[in-house]
Design goal:
Helices cover about 30% and strands about 15% of the residues. By secondary structure, the protein is an alpha/beta fold. The protein has a 7-stranded mixed beta sheet, sandwiched between helices. Strands 8-10-9 form a 3-stranded antiparallel beta sheet. Helix 6 packs across helix 8 and helix 7 crosses helix 8.
Length: about 400
């Protein structure tokens, strides 16, 4: 039987809050900000006389999930409510000064995924930083970390690799809810303490599909629990010219490229150990993104045991296997500033160097170091832990 969870949004609506009611509020949210009846928070707050909703803040994908990953979000007026929408994923990534002078509080309701690459926590950090300067309260309506049972995995981010896909020196899988992440950022960066309206009924050992909440994909490319479980690892493929399955019905599950022989790739993958998964040789044709309209050879990753799966390590081994298939055609992607995107994702240049080294041992040693990083984060995590 699924566990009943009362989200921060539902607690606000049923119990109210003096920190929100009667104040001029801006709302940072997107299509995941819904109650259990799939009613959107914008519509709920705008129609409730207790709340004075004066502005909407749009992260990646937009307020109602209308924008594809990586595409800029425009500022506009919400057609359903007439409330202005200010983009935090366009020309600017932080709220305007004048907006912060006009509001008393910023309410945040986003379904995060507990992975450092996901941009919602980066957006939250920029909002918290500006709000602290203007002494504006930030109020988090908390939601589950859908990958919480995976615990903490992957390396810590090195400071010089901080970016919008790497908001702070936490592991790739950091184990926190958005409310806990906000508390950590405030504690470690000296920001104004957030107000977290906690969930009721949620515990850390619950997968999202152990709860009675309906999954609303936070990104167009995370439609299922399988894509979400693999995302912390196969997202690293984004840092190369290999397709990570965007533009297919199985993003982050299909991995490949036009020059790859899927059966030869299967043989190379036998070098490494992959607990909890099974590879299937396959061909796929992305409809957009990398290699759009071209047949790609590769693998589909099937999850057999989500508890045994170590997704970040899986991503590292996949990179090595694809590199060994064709060192000449394998390429690392760089951004407009010449930085390697995989370095920004993983938080250092060590993975890129290990993947292209002469032996497998460098990668194996690196993964051992990652496990030590994850353990070292535990004490920091416990200082802000809100749930058992």
């Amino acid at each position: 039987m699924r566990r009943r969870i009362i989200t921060g949004l539902e607690r606000l609506l049923s119990q109210g809050s003096e920190k929100v009611e009667g104040r001029h509020i801006a709302l940072l949210t997107n299509h995941t900000g819904v109650d259990r009846n799939m009613r959107h928070i914008v519509d709920l707050l705008a129609s409730d006389d207790r709340f004075d909703l004066v502005a909407l803040l749009a992260p990646e994908h937009g307020i109602r999930g209308e924008v594809q990953a990586g595409e800029k979000v425009s500022s506009y007026v919400d057609p359903r409510t007439g409330i202005p929408v200010y983009s935090l994923y366009g020309e600017s990534y932080e709220p305007e000064d004048q907006l912060l002078r006009d509001v008393d509080a910023i309410v945040v309701d986003l379904q995060d995924v507990g992975v450092r690459y996901a941009t919602y926590t980066s957006t939250l950090l920029r909002v918290m930083t500006k709000a602290s300067h203007f002494e504006v309260d930030v109020i988090i309506l908390d939601r589950p970390n859908p990958l919480s049972p995976k615990g903490i995995q992957g390396p810590l981010l090195q400071k010089e690799y901080t970016s919008f896909v790497g908001f702070h020196n936490v592991p790739v899988l950091h184990g926190m809810t958005l409310g806990e992440a906000a508390c950590l950022l405030a504690h470690e960066l000296g920001l104004r303490e957030p107000i977290v309206i906690k969930m009721e009924g949620w515990e850390r050992n619950l997968w999202y599909d152990d709860t009675d909440l309906v999954w609303v994909q936070p990104s167009p490319n995370l439609p299922t629990m399988d894509s979400l479980l693999l995302y912390p690892g196969t997202c690293l493929i984004e840092g190369t010219n290999i397709s990570e399955g965007r533009g297919t019905t199985r993003p982050f599950e299909y991995i490949g490229a036009p020059w790859i022989d899927p059966y030869a790739l299967l043989e190379t993958l036998k070098i490494f150990e992959f607990p909890g998964i099974l590879f299937r040789a396959t061909y796929f044709t992305p409809m957009f993104s990398k290699h759009s309209g071209r047949s790609c050879g590769g693998v589909q990753v099937h999850i057999l045991d989500r508890y045994a799966l170590r997704p970040v390590e899986l991503g590292a081994y996949l990179l090595r296997a694809f590199y060994l298939q064709d060192e000449e055609k394998f390429e690392w992607v760089q951004n407009s500033e010449g930085k390697f995107f995989v370095d920004l994702l993983i938080g250092s240049d060590k993975l890129r160097k290990a993947v292209t080294s002469n032996t497998d041992s460098e990668l194996l040693d690196l993964i051992t170091a990652w496990r030590e990083d994850a353990l070292s984060f535990t004490d920091r995590f416990r200082e802000v832990q809100l749930y058992q």
